[in-house]
Amino acid sequence: MSEPKTPTPTPAGDTYKGWVFKWTNYIKGYQRRWFVLSNGLLSYYRTQAEMGHTCRGTINLATATITVDDACNFVISNGGAQTYHLKASCEVERQRWITALELAKAKAARMQAEEEGIYKVEDLSTCNDLISKHGSALQRSLSELDSLRLTGEAGDKIRQVTERATLFRITSNAMINACRDFLSLAQANSKRWQKALQAEREQRVRLEETLEQLAKQHNHLERAFRGASQANATADNKNAAGPGKGEASDEDDENEFFDAMEEAPEFITVPADPQFHKRSSSNISGFNSEMCPDDQSLNEEPLAMNQESPSQELVPLKKRRTRIPDKPNYSLNLWSIMKNCIGKELSKIPMPVNFNEPISMLQRLTEDLEYHELLDKAAKCQSSLEQMCYVAAFSVSSYSTTVYRTGKPFNPLLGETYELDRRRESGYRSLCEQVSHHPPAAAHHVISDRGWTLRQEITVASKFRGKYLSIMPLGTIHAIFEKGDHHYTWKKVTTTVHNIIVGKLWIDQSGEIDVVNHTTGDRCHLKFAPYSYFSRDVARKVTGVVMDKDGKAHYVLSGTWDEKMEFSRVMQSSRGGENGAEGKQKTVYQTLKAREVWRRNPLPEGAETMYYFTNLALTLNEPEEGVGPTDSRRRPDQRLMEDGRWEEANAEKQRLEEKQRSARREREREAASAPHDNYQAQWFDRCEDRITGEQIHLYKGGYWETKDRGTWEESPKIF
């Protein structure tokens, strides 16, 4: 069957409607859409039936530019995030649309000027100046007349006064008439303005309700799909070391992030009987033998430099920067960008830098090392159970930098790297590389001279849910300690950004994770409580219990992910207390006095104008000599944003993204017969993790040696 003929656009009063082909993407190309031009606004829908409920986009013509490409193509742009590339079926139809658009644009601009009262205000201002001028002259003439005696000049002065009084009267009448006209205009249009404002408010409410409904429907579909997939999984897959409890936890309950009711704690802690304190002080029952040497003084001085390299102490440490340029005060309408992005991956939404912070996701991942000293202390512990407390505290500490950080890091380009060499200051070297683009994945490897190695590969899944944004890090974090060969793994919890459309943005962390020592079988179950309006408990609360392989509790951890964590030694446990939500009795732990294991560092002065960066974050994008050509510090759009040149940064960001897409298309052409992308990471090899069974990227070595030689010829030119 032949395609039905496209109907000619038809005017209806101030409204112009018709089918126009709109460019969508490189896969679908131009798609037919129903466009409606009304009241200076150009809106489009997929079908005519959508006009009553689902608008796909709108441009205000008062500030838009209209350009013609060729006989059938034309472009409409508002100079910001909205640009429509349109194509009419023929040149005549295109000219009809151009004429209608130009007329509507002129009328919209004129109405905007009239609504602002430009013309009437100018008339009133002119009349006011004239009244002031003539009034002053009249006052001077009257004063002169009063000082004169009635002589031959009296008649002339009287005539002068009369003339000026006449001018004053004429000007006053003109101003009165102008005021009367303005009042009539205001009275005639006030009801229309009020009606238009009310209509806008009602439309906004309907849009918010539609967003919430769509988000819920999308969530139900995902849950149904996930349920069907889980039904087909085998019991072995369920028991295997896979995604942890904290992964994508916000998807388990659609109401979890909407002021959920307060959840009862899983256990209760009470002070231990005094006899346990006496026994512990007299070194009975082996309690002190399980403490690490520095256990009695957690606030120890910073660890000394590597004793094997004393010559390093002779070289002064590099002074790091403590400020970056202040964040410009640029405003941008988030709604205009996000309203069509429900259910989409955040990494696939073209975002201007206005929503970013001037660091990449690789640098953001490196910020996990903000409290690396927790791993330094863990490496010194004699007891694996207390070592678990430090590792668990480290897993919590990485979230403390997010509490005020509502900006989105730059998505790394494929092959982008980031190094952080703090071997002389802190004993470690860190390297990240973007090893995959779809899905986006970054591999991270850290080696410390103080007896530990940290590695992770994180894929970020993110969904826009209408009122909030869910960010679900997928992947496993590994910490390996040389002493005892203790190997720990854990995952990250879900981050939620609230008030995406209306209100002040704020961030919450929620979910459950298990920190597991695969060498000894020790385990720490941590629970990040979601924010609840009804809760009487402290906000951002984190609780956890450290257990050995037999399930016996040894330590209880408590605190908040944005402030501090404490741990208490469990001396005795029993069933009792109030019943839980399912009628089960809670566990009661008798503990010794809690001691602080971690506390957040204060933010630098003026952090609110520097994207709320920590002292470490302020140094991450500081230029350094000798880093690789693919290092995030060399990324031009990120550097332009940090310097406050956001318009240039947006243009550069688009250039880099298009260059990356071109490189991907080229790889696909070269490997058309291959089932997968043939891309190979530069510094990491893909393999199977022997602990989790996951496909991961492991550091294969060679980066630091290449840096020492300065031979970067094999590095790709991604910028």
From TrEMBL:
Residues 13-106 form the PH domain. One of its GO terms (molecular function) is sterol binding. It is a peripheral membrane protein. It comes from the Eukaryota. It is found in: Membrane. It holds the Pfam family PH. This is Oxysterol-binding protein. It comes from Scophthalmus maximus. The gene is LOC118317590.
